[in-house]
């Protein structure tokens, strides 16, 4: 439980108020007069989606991380590719593994109907990540509002800004330092999540010399297709 609290507080402090992502003009209750229902609508959409598939909670937290590491928390991960330019969303880093876009789309559609052109997608994503953590038993925490949506999203920037599952410690440390995070903050944010736990750490175990003793070693990449096979079997 303590660890969960630490993780939640870290996300709260780091992604919402903290270091690399502080932006001028963010404030509590940013929409209190322009669109008072903003946070309530996002929470309702998140809760509805999570009641159907609680896995969206992980997807939305990861989506905010992937949004914030590329061009800041500007919703650039949500933009679609154009014929002239592939967007972050279509990078193999995000496609097909990033999930929850439809939750943000639904919240945005409702908020456009209620308060046209007011609530940014970047804020919706920040609220949704917070609400996902609360829904799954973590702490609720206040999120500042007022992020502006970017208009630029470039696939190749995901490679240069997001850490790879094959990164070693110094590469990971550098990647987080580039965004203003200390190594302690990096570990707090990452250590209990699927990428480090399931992918990176397991890969280290898999490659450990002790496994040379095994008769058979198999590395299975869990993808959406794998899930489909599992469901159909
Ligand atoms: C330290 C560097 C990190 C690496 C290399 C990394 C990499 C990965 C990878 C490879 C996956 C599996 C994606 C798949 O399903 O194919 C994953 C999942 C995930 N990551 Fe990370 N990650 C890192 C840091 C973080 C941070 C800082 C957060 C959030 C604060 C985060 C949140 C998540 C979540 C919630 C999932 C599960 C997503 C889902 O089930 O939909 N990761 N990560």
Describe the structure.
The structure is a single chain. The model is unreliable at 1-10, 16-20, 194-198 and 229-233 (pLDDT under 50). It contains ten helices and no strands. The radius of gyration is 18 Å and the shape is globular. With 233 residues, it is an all-alpha fold. Helices cover 52% and strands 0% of the residues. Protoporphyrin IX containing FE (HEM) binds at residues 11, 55, 58-59, 61-62, 65, 97, 99, 163-165, 167, 172, 189-190, 193-196, 199-200.
Entry summary:
Helices cover about 50% and strands about 0% of the residues. It contains ten helices and no strands. Mean pLDDT is about 85; it is low at about 1-10, about 15-20, about 195-200 and about 230-233.
Q: Which structural class do the helices and strands define?
A: mainly alpha
* Distance, first to last CA: 35 Å
Provide a count of the helices.
10
* Small molecules held by this entry: protoporphyrin IX containing FE
Bin the helical content.
40-55%
- Compute the average pLDDT: 83
Shape: globular
């Amino acid at each position: 439980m303590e660890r969960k609290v630490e993780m939640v507080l870290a996300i709260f402090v780091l992604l919402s108020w903290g270091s690399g992502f502080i932006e001028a003009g963010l404030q509590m209750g940013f929409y209190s007069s322009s669109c008072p229902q903003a946070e309530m609508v996002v929470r309702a959409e998140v809760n509805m989606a999570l009641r159907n598939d609680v896995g969206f909670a992980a997807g939305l937290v990861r989506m905010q991380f992937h949004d914030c590491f590329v061009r800041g928390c500007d919703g650039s991960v949500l933009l679609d590719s154009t014929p002239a330019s592939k967007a972050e969303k279509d990078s193999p880093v995000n496609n097909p593994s990033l999930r929850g876009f439809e939750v943000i789309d639904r919240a945005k559609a409702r908020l456009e109907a209620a308060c046209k052109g007011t609530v940014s997608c970047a804020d919706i994503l920040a609220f949704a990540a917070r609400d996902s953590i609360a829904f799954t038993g973590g702490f609720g925490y206040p999120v500042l509002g007022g992020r502006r949506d970017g208009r630029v999203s470039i696939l190749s920037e995901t490679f240069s800004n997001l850490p790879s599952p094959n990164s070693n410690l110094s590469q990971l440390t550098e990647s987080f330092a580039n965004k203003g995070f200390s190594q302690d903050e990096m570990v707090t944010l990452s250590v209990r999540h699927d990428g480090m736990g399931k992918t990176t750490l397991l890969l280290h175990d898999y490659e450990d010399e002790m496994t040379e003793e095994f008769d058979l070693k198999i590395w299975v990449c869990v993808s959406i297709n794998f899930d489909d096979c599992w469901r159909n079997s």
